[in-house]
Protein backbone atom coordinates (compact mmCIF):
# COMPACT_ATOMS: atom_id res chain seq x y z
CA UNK A 1 0.00 0.00 0.00
CA UNK A 2 1.25 3.48 -0.80
CA UNK A 3 -0.63 6.51 0.34
CA UNK A 4 -0.22 10.21 0.45
CA UNK A 5 -0.52 11.62 3.92
CA UNK A 6 -3.90 13.16 4.49
CA UNK A 7 -4.32 15.22 7.67
CA UNK A 8 -6.86 12.63 8.82
CA UNK A 9 -4.64 9.63 8.08
CA UNK A 10 -4.53 7.71 11.34
CA UNK A 11 -1.37 6.26 12.77
CA UNK A 12 -2.91 2.78 12.44
CA UNK A 13 -2.63 3.13 8.67
CA UNK A 14 1.14 2.73 8.99
CA UNK A 15 1.01 -0.36 11.23
CA UNK A 16 0.71 -3.01 8.58
CA UNK A 17 4.00 -4.44 7.32
CA UNK A 18 3.38 -4.08 3.56
CA UNK A 19 2.92 -0.32 3.89
CA UNK A 20 5.44 1.07 1.42
CA UNK A 21 6.78 4.42 2.49
CA UNK A 22 7.79 6.96 -0.07
CA UNK A 23 10.26 9.68 0.70
CA UNK A 24 7.54 12.25 0.04
CA UNK A 25 5.10 10.76 2.56
CA UNK A 26 7.80 10.36 5.20
CA UNK A 27 8.93 13.93 4.63
CA UNK A 28 5.37 15.20 5.06
CA UNK A 29 5.23 13.51 8.46
CA UNK A 30 8.74 14.71 9.41
CA UNK A 31 7.78 18.31 8.61
CA UNK A 32 4.48 18.35 10.49
CA UNK A 33 4.16 21.05 13.14
CA UNK A 34 6.20 19.72 16.07
CA UNK A 35 3.22 19.22 18.37
CA UNK A 36 1.29 17.31 15.70
CA UNK A 37 4.32 15.12 15.00
CA UNK A 38 4.83 14.33 18.68
CA UNK A 39 1.11 13.66 19.18
CA UNK A 40 1.11 11.13 16.33
CA UNK A 41 4.30 9.50 17.59
CA UNK A 42 3.05 9.27 21.17
CA UNK A 43 -0.32 7.90 20.02
CA UNK A 44 1.42 5.19 18.03
CA UNK A 45 3.75 4.48 20.95
CA UNK A 46 0.85 3.99 23.39
CA UNK A 47 -0.92 1.64 21.01
CA UNK A 48 2.07 -0.66 20.90
CA UNK A 49 4.01 -0.24 24.15
CA UNK A 50 3.72 0.79 27.77
CA UNK A 51 4.80 4.44 27.40
CA UNK A 52 6.53 4.43 30.79
CA UNK A 53 8.78 1.44 30.23
CA UNK A 54 12.21 1.57 28.60
CA UNK A 55 14.28 -1.45 27.66
CA UNK A 56 17.85 -1.54 29.00
CA UNK A 57 20.69 -2.99 26.95
CA UNK A 58 24.33 -3.28 27.86
CA UNK A 59 27.12 -3.12 25.31
CA UNK A 60 30.57 -4.69 25.51
CA UNK A 61 33.41 -4.37 23.02
CA UNK A 62 34.77 -7.90 22.64
CA UNK A 63 37.44 -6.84 20.13
CA UNK A 64 38.48 -3.21 19.99
CA UNK A 65 40.24 -1.19 17.30
CA UNK A 66 42.37 -2.06 14.29
CA UNK A 67 39.32 -2.39 12.02
CA UNK A 68 40.07 -2.53 8.26
CA UNK A 69 36.88 -0.59 7.43
CA UNK A 70 37.06 3.21 7.10
CA UNK A 71 33.77 4.40 8.65
CA UNK A 72 34.28 8.15 8.97
CA UNK A 73 32.72 8.39 12.43
CA UNK A 74 34.57 5.53 14.10
CA UNK A 75 37.48 5.64 16.54
CA UNK A 76 38.19 1.95 15.85
CA UNK A 77 39.09 2.24 12.18
CA UNK A 78 42.75 1.51 11.38
CA UNK A 79 42.45 4.27 8.74
CA UNK A 80 42.15 7.02 11.39
CA UNK A 81 44.71 8.31 13.91
CA UNK A 82 42.58 8.33 17.06
CA UNK A 83 45.13 6.96 19.50
CA UNK A 84 42.91 3.98 20.29
CA UNK A 85 44.89 0.84 21.11
CA UNK A 86 43.78 -2.29 19.27
CA UNK A 87 43.03 -5.33 21.40
CA UNK A 88 42.61 -9.04 20.76
CA UNK A 89 39.31 -10.89 21.08
CA UNK A 90 38.27 -10.91 24.75
CA UNK A 91 38.33 -14.25 26.55
CA UNK A 92 34.96 -15.99 26.75
CA UNK A 93 34.97 -16.26 30.56
CA UNK A 94 35.57 -12.50 30.90
CA UNK A 95 32.64 -11.76 28.63
CA UNK A 96 30.38 -14.04 30.70
CA UNK A 97 31.58 -12.40 33.93
CA UNK A 98 30.80 -8.91 32.53
CA UNK A 99 27.39 -10.07 31.29
CA UNK A 100 26.58 -11.47 34.74
CA UNK A 101 27.34 -8.07 36.29
CA UNK A 102 25.14 -6.34 33.68
CA UNK A 103 22.26 -8.75 34.32
CA UNK A 104 22.53 -8.20 38.08
CA UNK A 105 22.35 -4.43 37.45
CA UNK A 106 19.07 -4.81 35.51
CA UNK A 107 20.10 -5.14 31.86
CA UNK A 108 17.99 -7.66 29.94
CA UNK A 109 19.89 -7.62 26.66
CA UNK A 110 23.64 -8.06 26.24
CA UNK A 111 25.19 -6.69 23.06
CA UNK A 112 28.70 -7.76 22.06
CA UNK A 113 30.57 -5.83 19.37
CA UNK A 114 33.76 -6.65 17.48
CA UNK A 115 35.65 -4.22 15.24
CA UNK A 116 35.79 -6.50 12.22
CA UNK A 117 34.89 -6.27 8.55
CA UNK A 118 33.64 -9.84 9.02
CA UNK A 119 34.41 -12.63 11.49
CA UNK A 120 37.22 -15.04 10.54
CA UNK A 121 36.63 -18.80 10.68
CA UNK A 122 39.12 -19.07 13.59
CA UNK A 123 37.04 -16.65 15.72
CA UNK A 124 33.71 -18.41 15.37
CA UNK A 125 34.14 -20.99 18.18
CA UNK A 126 34.80 -18.26 20.75
CA UNK A 127 31.97 -16.06 19.48
CA UNK A 128 29.53 -18.99 19.60
CA UNK A 129 30.65 -19.81 23.17
CA UNK A 130 29.96 -16.20 24.17
CA UNK A 131 26.41 -16.36 22.80
CA UNK A 132 25.75 -19.68 24.55
CA UNK A 133 27.19 -18.41 27.84
CA UNK A 134 25.25 -15.14 27.88
CA UNK A 135 22.05 -16.89 26.81
CA UNK A 136 22.47 -19.31 29.74
CA UNK A 137 22.32 -16.29 32.07
CA UNK A 138 18.73 -15.69 30.96
CA UNK A 139 19.56 -12.59 28.93
CA UNK A 140 18.77 -11.72 25.34
CA UNK A 141 21.89 -11.83 23.18
CA UNK A 142 22.96 -9.43 20.46
CA UNK A 143 26.14 -9.31 18.41
CA UNK A 144 27.67 -6.97 15.88
CA UNK A 145 30.57 -8.55 14.00
CA UNK A 146 30.39 -6.99 10.54
CA UNK A 147 29.36 -8.85 7.40
CA UNK A 148 28.30 -12.49 7.80
CA UNK A 149 28.01 -15.42 5.44
CA UNK A 150 25.09 -17.82 5.58
CA UNK A 151 27.00 -20.49 7.51
CA UNK A 152 28.12 -18.02 10.18
CA UNK A 153 24.59 -16.67 10.57
CA UNK A 154 23.24 -20.23 10.93
CA UNK A 155 25.85 -21.06 13.60
CA UNK A 156 25.00 -17.93 15.56
CA UNK A 157 21.28 -18.66 15.36
CA UNK A 158 21.88 -22.23 16.52
CA UNK A 159 23.94 -20.93 19.47
CA UNK A 160 20.95 -18.85 20.59
CA UNK A 161 21.68 -15.43 19.14
CA UNK A 162 18.53 -13.32 19.42
CA UNK A 163 19.61 -10.14 17.61
CA UNK A 164 22.22 -9.13 15.08
CA UNK A 165 23.14 -5.46 14.88
CA UNK A 166 24.10 -4.17 11.47
CA UNK A 167 23.41 -0.48 10.92
CA UNK A 168 22.81 1.11 7.55
CA UNK A 169 24.22 4.33 9.07
CA UNK A 170 22.67 6.87 6.67
CA UNK A 171 20.91 7.18 3.31
CA UNK A 172 22.10 5.26 0.26
CA UNK A 173 22.86 8.63 -1.37
CA UNK A 174 25.17 9.80 1.44
CA UNK A 175 26.72 6.41 2.27
CA UNK A 176 29.85 6.77 0.14
CA UNK A 177 30.64 10.11 1.85
CA UNK A 178 31.01 8.22 5.12
CA UNK A 179 32.39 4.79 4.15
CA UNK A 180 34.36 3.69 1.09
CA UNK A 181 35.40 0.14 2.03
CA UNK A 182 31.92 -1.36 1.58
CA UNK A 183 28.67 -0.40 -0.08
CA UNK A 184 25.12 0.25 1.08
CA UNK A 185 24.14 -2.90 -0.86
CA UNK A 186 26.64 -4.98 1.18
CA UNK A 187 24.80 -3.87 4.30
CA UNK A 188 21.41 -4.84 2.90
CA UNK A 189 22.78 -8.26 1.84
CA UNK A 190 23.90 -9.13 5.39
CA UNK A 191 20.61 -7.86 6.80
CA UNK A 192 18.68 -10.14 4.45
CA UNK A 193 20.82 -13.11 5.35
CA UNK A 194 20.37 -12.46 9.09
CA UNK A 195 16.60 -12.20 8.63
CA UNK A 196 16.49 -15.43 6.61
CA UNK A 197 18.44 -17.19 9.35
CA UNK A 198 15.69 -16.34 11.84
CA UNK A 199 17.79 -13.88 13.89
CA UNK A 200 16.04 -10.65 14.81
CA UNK A 201 17.44 -7.53 13.20
CA UNK A 202 18.82 -4.52 15.07
CA UNK A 203 19.43 -1.84 12.47
CA UNK A 204 19.53 1.93 12.56
CA UNK A 205 21.95 4.72 11.88
CA UNK A 206 23.75 7.85 12.93
CA UNK A 207 22.64 11.43 12.55
CA UNK A 208 24.76 14.55 12.76
CA UNK A 209 27.34 13.37 10.20
CA UNK A 210 26.85 16.41 7.96
CA UNK A 211 23.94 14.80 6.15
CA UNK A 212 20.86 16.67 4.95
CA UNK A 213 17.45 16.11 6.59
CA UNK A 214 16.45 14.18 3.47
CA UNK A 215 19.22 11.64 4.19
CA UNK A 216 17.78 10.98 7.66
CA UNK A 217 14.35 10.55 6.12
CA UNK A 218 15.60 8.24 3.36
CA UNK A 219 17.49 6.14 5.91
CA UNK A 220 14.22 5.58 7.81
CA UNK A 221 12.36 4.87 4.56
CA UNK A 222 14.91 2.11 3.75
CA UNK A 223 14.45 0.59 7.21
CA UNK A 224 10.66 0.82 7.16
CA UNK A 225 10.46 -0.76 3.68
CA UNK A 226 12.55 -3.84 4.55
CA UNK A 227 10.54 -7.09 4.26
CA UNK A 228 10.11 -6.86 8.06
CA UNK A 229 10.70 -3.85 10.25
CA UNK A 230 13.92 -4.28 12.26
CA UNK A 231 12.89 -5.33 15.75
CA UNK A 232 15.34 -2.77 17.18
CA UNK A 233 16.14 0.57 15.59
CA UNK A 234 19.11 2.33 17.22
CA UNK A 235 19.32 6.04 16.43
CA UNK A 236 22.74 7.41 17.28
CA UNK A 237 23.73 11.06 17.56
CA UNK A 238 27.30 11.43 16.33
CA UNK A 239 29.93 11.82 19.00
CA UNK A 240 32.66 13.59 17.00
CA UNK A 241 36.02 11.96 17.71
CA UNK A 242 39.37 13.70 17.19
CA UNK A 243 41.37 12.04 14.43
CA UNK A 244 38.32 10.87 12.47
CA UNK A 245 37.15 12.61 9.27
CA UNK A 246 33.97 13.67 11.09
CA UNK A 247 35.76 15.29 14.03
CA UNK A 248 34.42 18.72 13.04
CA UNK A 249 30.94 17.67 11.91
CA UNK A 250 28.25 20.21 12.73
CA UNK A 251 26.03 18.86 15.55
CA UNK A 252 22.39 18.13 14.76
CA UNK A 253 19.96 20.57 16.32
CA UNK A 254 18.07 18.89 19.24
CA UNK A 255 14.56 19.51 17.85
CA UNK A 256 15.64 17.93 14.55
CA UNK A 257 16.92 14.91 16.44
CA UNK A 258 13.58 14.52 18.26
CA UNK A 259 11.84 14.69 14.87
CA UNK A 260 13.97 11.75 13.67
CA UNK A 261 12.96 9.71 16.73
CA UNK A 262 9.27 10.57 16.24
CA UNK A 263 9.39 9.64 12.56
CA UNK A 264 11.08 6.32 13.38
CA UNK A 265 8.35 5.57 15.91
CA UNK A 266 5.55 6.39 13.44
CA UNK A 267 7.13 4.46 10.55
CA UNK A 268 8.08 1.38 12.61
CA UNK A 269 5.40 1.34 15.32
CA UNK A 270 6.21 -2.04 16.85
CA UNK A 271 10.02 -1.71 16.86
CA UNK A 272 12.11 -0.76 19.85
CA UNK A 273 13.56 2.63 18.97
CA UNK A 274 16.84 2.97 20.82
CA UNK A 275 18.38 6.21 21.95
CA UNK A 276 21.94 5.04 21.43
CA UNK A 277 25.26 6.88 21.26
CA UNK A 278 25.29 10.58 21.98
CA UNK A 279 23.24 10.69 25.18
CA UNK A 280 26.15 12.31 27.06
CA UNK A 281 25.67 15.36 24.83
CA UNK A 282 21.90 15.49 25.46
CA UNK A 283 20.21 17.35 28.28
CA UNK A 284 17.75 15.47 30.49
CA UNK A 285 15.01 17.52 28.83
CA UNK A 286 16.09 16.42 25.35
CA UNK A 287 16.11 12.77 26.43
CA UNK A 288 12.66 13.24 28.00
CA UNK A 289 11.37 14.61 24.68
CA UNK A 290 12.90 11.61 22.88
CA UNK A 291 11.09 9.23 25.23
CA UNK A 292 7.86 11.13 24.59
CA UNK A 293 8.51 10.88 20.84
CA UNK A 294 8.70 7.10 21.15
CA UNK A 295 12.24 6.10 22.08
CA UNK A 296 11.92 3.09 24.39
CA UNK A 297 15.36 1.56 24.67
CA UNK A 298 18.75 2.79 25.86
CA UNK A 299 22.22 1.49 26.49
CA UNK A 300 23.18 1.56 30.15
CA UNK A 301 26.68 1.59 31.65
CA UNK A 302 29.57 4.04 31.62
CA UNK A 303 30.85 3.22 28.15
CA UNK A 304 29.51 2.13 24.78
CA UNK A 305 31.98 0.33 22.48
CA UNK A 306 34.58 3.01 23.08
CA UNK A 307 32.62 6.22 23.77
CA UNK A 308 31.30 7.60 27.05
CA UNK A 309 27.71 6.97 28.14
CA UNK A 310 25.82 8.45 31.10
CA UNK A 311 26.51 6.28 34.18
CA UNK A 312 23.84 4.09 35.78
CA UNK A 313 23.27 6.59 38.61
CA UNK A 314 22.44 9.39 36.19
CA UNK A 315 20.01 7.18 34.27
CA UNK A 316 18.36 5.91 37.46
CA UNK A 317 17.82 9.49 38.58
CA UNK A 318 16.42 10.55 35.20
CA UNK A 319 14.07 7.53 35.12
CA UNK A 320 12.86 8.38 38.63
CA UNK A 321 12.18 11.99 37.66
CA UNK A 322 10.25 10.87 34.57
CA UNK A 323 8.43 7.96 36.24
CA UNK A 324 10.01 5.54 33.77
CA UNK A 325 10.74 1.94 34.74
CA UNK A 326 12.94 -0.69 33.09
CA UNK A 327 11.05 -2.96 30.72
CA UNK A 328 10.96 -6.58 31.89
CA UNK A 329 12.17 -9.24 29.48
CA UNK A 330 8.67 -10.81 29.13
CA UNK A 331 7.26 -7.48 27.90
CA UNK A 332 9.81 -7.38 25.05
S1 LIG B 1 32.02 1.17 12.68
FE1 LIG B 1 32.51 -1.00 12.83
S2 LIG B 1 33.07 -1.57 10.75
FE2 LIG B 1 33.21 0.66 10.82
S3 LIG B 1 35.35 1.10 11.35
FE3 LIG B 1 34.19 1.04 13.26
S4 LIG B 1 34.41 -1.04 14.02
FE4 LIG B 1 34.97 -1.06 11.84
UniProtKB/TrEMBL annotation:
Pfam families: BATS (PF06968), Radical_SAM (PF04055). Residues 52-279 form the Radical SAM core domain. Keywords: 2Fe-2S, 4Fe-4S, Biotin biosynthesis, Iron, Iron-sulfur, Metal-binding, S-adenosyl-L-methionine, Transferase. GO terms for molecular function: biotin synthase activity. Pathway: Cofactor biosynthesis; biotin biosynthesis; biotin from 7,8-diaminononanoate: step 2/2. Its EC number is 2.8.1.6. [2Fe-2S] cluster binds at residues 111, 142, 202, 274. Binds 1 [2Fe-2S] cluster. The cluster is coordinated with 3 cysteines and 1 arginine. CDD domains: Radical_SAM (cd01335). [4Fe-4S] cluster binds at residues 67, 71, 74. InterPro entries: Aldolase_TIM, BATS_dom, Biotin_synth/BioAB, Biotin_synthase, Elp3/MiaA/NifB-like_rSAM, rSAM, rSAM_sf. Catalyzes the conversion of dethiobiotin (DTB) to biotin by the insertion of a sulfur atom into dethiobiotin via a radical-based mechanism. Homodimer. Belongs to the radical SAM superfamily. Biotin synthase family. This is Biotin synthase. The lineage of its organism: Bacteria, Pseudomonadati, Pseudomonadota, Alphaproteobacteria, Hyphomicrobiales.
